[in-house]
Each structure stands twice: as C-alpha cells, then as structure tokens.
Specification:
Layout (H helix, E strand, L loop, with lengths): L10 E3 L7 H14 L11 E7 L4 E5 L12 H12 L5 E8 L12 H14 L4 E6 L4 E4 L17
Parallel strand pairs: 4-5
Antiparallel strand pairs: 1-6, 2-3, 2-4, 5-6
The structure holds tetrahydrodeoxyuridine.
C-alpha cells in the first residue's frame, strides 16, 4: 500500500493591475461576451475568450435551452468554434468569467469543459493557459489543462 497525492499549482492575482496586458485583454473580452449570454433559466451569464497562436481572440458565452441538457457552456461554445474554424491554429489561453457569483473565488469550469480543454491541449501538443476571473476579485491562472483535470481519461484512440 502506498499513499500518493497530487498537487495543483496556480498563480493568484489580486487585481488585474499586476497581470500581463494580453491576459487582461482576454479577460475583458470574456466579460464583454458574458453580457450577451443567453441564460434565461439559470440567470448565470458566463463568458469565455480564447487567444490563438496568431494573437487573434474569439469569444463565446453560455447558450441555454428550455430542454436544459441541450444548453452549452461558454467554454465549449468558443472552443468548438475555434477548433471548427481554425484547426491549424493552436490555442494559447482561455479566460473564463461570470457576471454573477456568490463565491469569493472565480468561476471554475465544469467537468465536461475540463475534458474538452484537456483533449484540445493534448491534440495540439501545446499547453493551454486557463485564466479564471472573478469580476472585482481575484484571478487564478493555471499553466495547463491537467491541473484542472488530474488523471484525465485520454482515450487509447488518441495515441
Ligand atoms: N456554465 C458555463 O457556461 N461555464 C461554466 O464553467 C460553468 C457553468 C453555465 C452553464 C449554465 O448555462 C449556467 O452556467 C449555470 O450552470
């Protein structure tokens, strides 16, 4: 028998003042697109913005549906869009935020979205920085997807 543990490293910024300008720009885009979210059921608007390796930024938000499981998170809205349209560009970073939160920490992506970020990182052979922002609060930066999904299932078919 052996006791193991997994440690997650991330950077916390108290405010945007001390963050790299390109990350602040990505966060601002995520906040902007969150305002256009279609979330009449949860009333929990989320925005996500992605920066590609050519510097271009794309953004998406959560799109809900009266048949609840038909809705899509902000992260997958934008990730699937960029992967569909720019399959040859790598994703450098994704910023995620919510307009509402009862928590003192930033919103964290759901398990579905973590799995999708994981596979995109794995298939592009380049880490994706994950930037979680709370408006008026702290920002957490994770260097790559496995930090948010340790021991992830990366199927045999990908190898
Ligand atoms: N949601 C996201 O868009 N991203 C997340 O990381 C967590 C949750 C959405 C799904 C749903 O529309 C609403 O937030 C409430 O769960």
């Amino acid at each position: 028998m052996k006791q193991n543990s997994i440690t997650i490293d991330y950077i916390e910024y108290e405010s945007l003042d001390s963050m790299p300008a390109e990350d602040v720009a990505l966060i601002e885009k995520a906040v902007e697109i969150a305002r256009k979210s279609y979330s009449p059921y949860s009333k929990f608007p989320v925005g996500a913005a992605v920066r590609l390796d050519n510097g271009e930024i794309y953004a998406g938000n959560n799109q809900e549906n009266v048949a609840y499981p038909s809705g899509t998170c902000a992260e997958r809205t934008v990730l699937n869009y960029v992967n569909a349209n720019f399959p040859d560009n790598n994703i450098e970073a994704i910023a995620i935020t919510s307009l509402k939160s009862n928590s003192s920490i930033p919103i964290t992506p759901c398990g579905f979205c973590r799995q999708v970020i994981m596979e995109m990182e794995y298939s592009q052979h380049q880490n994706i920085r994950i930037i979680l922002h709370k408006i008026g609060g702290p920002t957490y930066v994770f260097h790559s997807a496995p930090a948010l999904l340790p021991l992830a299932f990366i199927g045999e078919m990908l190898q």
